[in-house]
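Quick look at the format.
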Amino acid sequence: MKYHALLCTAAAIAFVSGAGGAAAAEGDPAAGKNKKAMCAGCHGIAGYKTAFPEVYSVPKLGGQHAAYIVKALQAYKSGGRRHPTMRAIASGLTDQDMADLAAYYATATPRTANQ
């Protein structure tokens, strides 16, 4: 768990310092809503815990910063983050898909783990 927190902190620092590379695509929340089916299977279930590759609570995405979601998806796609299910899902996403999903979740109401 400490590794995950360290990775998140490093990603946030890289983003804030401008180490993100090319300009991000502009996201469309309405398009993201139509693309969220794969996300909702885990991130939309109250109190859901995954059992592979280890047991942990799946984070809620509603209210998260769009830039953070895009960077996380890019890291899963490139292999920088190593969750096998997320890597498989992110590998099929275009930059526009990532931006749309991020825009949708950034405008969604934040939820606690039990909602």
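Next, a different chain entirely:
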Amino acid sequence: MASPNRADHTWAKNSYQKAKKIIFSSQSNCGICGRPVDFDKKFPDPWSATVDHIIPVAKGGDPASVDNMQLAHLQCNRIKSSKMVELQTREKSVSNRDLPLSCDWTTKGA
């Protein structure tokens, strides 16, 4: 039998749906990978928007609390499953635009 804390039970379904609307309207980046979420992509697209429980319901997290939910890609949420993870940030890549200029070319040959 499923745990009584599951968000899909009748007692929490309305609260979960309200919290989902709040998350979808207030967040734009995946809470797991940090990349933007495209709301035009729909299930079953792996990059579609879904709600992730920060503390998994299986580990005692509140299934309907907005404080325990974050926006996530479906793929990221499936990989995370019921594991506890910290926010992962991508390292800033070095590009030519970030490198210092060797000289001021605007004054050369003038």
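DSSP finds two helices and two strands in the chain.

See the schema section for token definitions.
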